[in-house]
Amino acid sequence: MSNNLSYETVFHELEQTVHALEAGDLPLEQALSHYERGMVLAAQCNQLLQNAELRVQQIINGQLISTE
């Protein structure tokens, strides 16, 4: 998966993966594959959120510095 995908795109794929697992009708190997993919997607979502939080903090700090 490309690092250029949006949070929304990655989260949507994560939701689809979770729904497939929750349905409970996957063979074991396929369920394990979905679970592994879901863990990768969850980590990617978390990283994207952390990056966004860092950008917000940088914006806030930049605005505070420029108004002083």
UniProtKB/TrEMBL annotation:
Keyword Nuclease found: yes
Swiss-Prot/TrEMBL catalytic activity: Exonucleolytic cleavage in either 5'- to 3'- or 3'- to 5'-direction to yield nucleoside 5'-phosphates
A GO BP annotation: DNA catabolic process
Keywords: Cytoplasm, Exonuclease, Hydrolase, Nuclease
GO function terms (MF aspect): exodeoxyribonuclease VII activity
One Gene Ontology term, aspect cellular component: exodeoxyribonuclease VII complex
Subcellular localization: Cytoplasm
Annotated NCBIfam families: xseB
HAMAP family cross-referenced by the UniProt entry: Exonuc_7_S
Primary role: Bidirectionally degrades single-stranded DNA into large acid-insoluble oligonucleotides, which are then degraded further into small acid-soluble oligonucleotides.
Quaternary structure and partners: Heterooligomer composed of large and small subunits.
Protein name listed in UniProt: Exodeoxyribonuclease 7 small subunit
Organism: Herpetosiphon aurantiacus (strain ATCC 23779 / DSM 785 / 114-95)
Organism taxonomic ancestry: Bacteria, Bacillati, Chloroflexota, Chloroflexia, Herpetosiphonales
